[in-house]
Amino acid sequence: MISAKNKNGEFTVLWKKPKDEIERIRRTQKFYCPHCGDSLLIKAGSINIPHFAHKNQSACSSFSESESIHHLNGKLDIFEWLKKSYPESVELEPYLEEIGQRPDILLAVEGQNYAIEYQCSSIPATVIQTRTKGYLAMNIKPIWIMGDAPIRKGKDGKTSIYKLSPFQWSFAQSSSSGSPLLLSYSPENKIMGQLSKFFPLTPSKTFAAPIISPLYKLNPSQILLNPADCFTQYPIKRWMDEKNKWMQQRVHYSRWKKDHFLLTIYQNGLNPFLLAPQIGLPVSYMYSVSSHPLEWQLYIWTDTLNHDKGKIIDMDRCLQNVQKRIRKGDIKKRPLPLLSHDFTDRMVSSYLHLLVRTGHLKMCGKNKFRLVNEFNFPLNMEKGIEEEKIYYSTIVKDINRQLIERITFF
Predict the structure, then answer these.
(1) pLDDT of residue 410
(2) How many CB atoms lie within 10 A of CB 14?
(3) 346 CB contacts (<8 Å, ≥6 apart)?
(4) What is the percent of the chain where pLDDT is above 90?
């Protein structure tokens, strides 16, 4: 930690103090953790940033994670960056006694407090959620920044495909438009990155739009206080390639007798490589689940849409069927502790309304649809590939339209 209490209860910061003064302080003063009250050691070598640390085997719940040089440097960079814009409104490691938490940085702007957490080591999503709830209970808005740096520009300079772990996904937080974004900072190259417009390609790979810039060029109000996402085009060809590759791997590596997804396909007399192109479409909010769209959209077809033309489809019933699949474990939710809403229903709604635009469903009342065209299951691989290309060429504008509008149907 950067700051600690002395015997008078005053906070002391060693950072930026001359070496001889730090040595004098080490000899003449004692310092204590504001959370647990234990005495602290001063760490001030020739390489390390001067800081305080618990003694070995400390049970302090507030500082159970050892801070790396990477973490200390990143925290101080962000603090100095904020201090240039808000010199009187930013604090380093303040202790919030009411909730027993100590954010890396506390910022007050226009009546709103922000707790900035710069997280380098991997922690459970439940810990992120608990800390976030603590801040919200005090009307403090948390902002989480990853210490890793998965954000790099794509080959076209604008878009790219990213592989995010469940830990990295847990940092997704709301932008000004309500859609999720992910922030990261690299102290080695002084770069701040932001990912937005998440459209997963597979459970681990996602398409996203990056904003990448040197920290000193950024305005804090744009990147932290009022972050905005940016529009870009969805990579339809890459989506089709990744979707087909995912299915090949699923069939090759799964024990189909224990794979409920494949069992459902076979029990309905289908071939996993000859599914209708209407199953497995990219839609808004599909980041809400970690299951591939081929999975949850197949279940929507088997549970709700597998009827003759003219059948009335009730959205509420469809949503209930999806929730049943989630409870059974057939569809897996993605843990997103920093998002205040569950967007699964909007994901399903986006899918049904995309089917309206492509002529398979027709609106016939509030949250009611009529099935006007059944799904097209190809007879062979060659025909299936051709039909898929034709179908996607006709819906590419509708898919990109969802990216722009973030349509909500509730």
Answers:
(1) 27
(2) 20
(3) 284, 285, 288, 408, 409, 410
(4) 35
pLDDT at 157: 46
User: How many other CB atoms sit within 10 Å of the CB of residue 200?
Assistant: 25
Q: How many helices (H) and strands (E) does the chain have?
A: 11, 16
- Secondary structure (3-state) at 118: strand
Question: How much is the CA Rg of the chain, to the nearest whole Å?
Answer: 26
Residue 155's contacts (CB-CB under 8 Å, 6 or more residues apart) are none
Is residue 258 pLDDT above 80, yes or no? yes
pTM of the model: 0.80
Give the single-character DSSP code of 209: E
Q: Which residues of 239-255 are buried (b: 16+ CB within 10 A; e: fewer)?
A: bbebbbebbeebeeeee
161 φ/ψ sector (left φ>0, alpha ψ -120 to 50, else beta): beta
Residue 394: the pLDDT is 86
C-alpha 12/C-alpha 337 separation (Å) is: 33
| Token reading at 1 | 């930690």
Name every residue whose Cβ is closer than 8 Å to that of residue 320 and which is 6 or more positions away in sequence: none
Contact by Cβ (8 Å): 72, 112: no
Angle between helices 315-328 and 344-357 (to 10 degrees): 130
Q: Which residues are CB-neighbours of 139 under 8 A, at least 6 positions away?
A: 113
Helix (H) or strand (E) holding 186: strand 180-186
